[in-house]
Description:
This protein has about 300 residues and is mainly α. It is built from 14 helices and no strands.
Amino acid sequence: MNSTDQQMIHSRSRAAFLGLALGDALGATTEFMLPAEIRSSYQIHNRIIGGGWLGIKAGQVTDDTEMSLALAHAVLDAGAWNLQQIADYFVAWMRSKPIDIGATVRKGIRTYLHNGTLEMPFNEWDAGNGAAMRMCPVALLSYGNSELLKRYTLEQAHLTHHHPLSDAGCLCIGKMLHAAVAGADRFALHELTRELVRQHPNFRFNNYNGQASGYIVDTLRTVFHFLFTTADFEECLVGVVNQGGDADTTGAIAGMIAGALYGEGSLPRHWMKKLNRTVRTDIELITPRLLTLAPAFDQTGWSS
């Protein structure tokens, strides 16, 4: 692998992780709102201004970014993928009294805390967004190996969410991130979504109905619709978060995929200036460290 490819992968990986945080911070303002309420309040919500039902500061992130960072730091501190350490870091995050935590996430973390369970049993109500929103560091840590992507994805997902639709959605996001970081175009990413739809027709998005709830199917239909009907990072994210619903998470997932697809140069400067500086610096520092643990690296650097 030549130095140009290395630089591209590093840059697109940073763009994915920063895109997650930007989508989270942008979408937190319109979380749980209806599109009509958003239009009444903002006409078009396209600035990172904070507020929302959580009353956050402009540029502040929520559980989507915080859990992704917790997962990343757990693995980096362990020096390798370590599910128990990830669970321990999730416990520490929960105990820090985060601004927001989903009910299914809380249940999974508390179950681990009380009896050491690293895999929740199947639950028909676990097809939420909590595992999917953490996929960016998972994809970077497994970059270069599809089998590790599957293993890491399902292990981290089942800490809190155990449902085939959640599993399938998470895996699709991971595959899209791997492809986009490697330089794939929108046509290649669209083929990955078609593969998901063939396996689980619920995710079909060609007749998008505007639902953007906490249900993984609604979330990915929203993300895919705007990813493939817009022309750049900003347009995609604005479209997604103006649907309301679980807007911080739809924004985060759209942000990670669109960030990897369009690259660092696509991230709006006016959004980047608003993003919490500590979060931005943390992401910029840990992203290359995550890649050093990925299968695409050997002992001394990039493998050929």
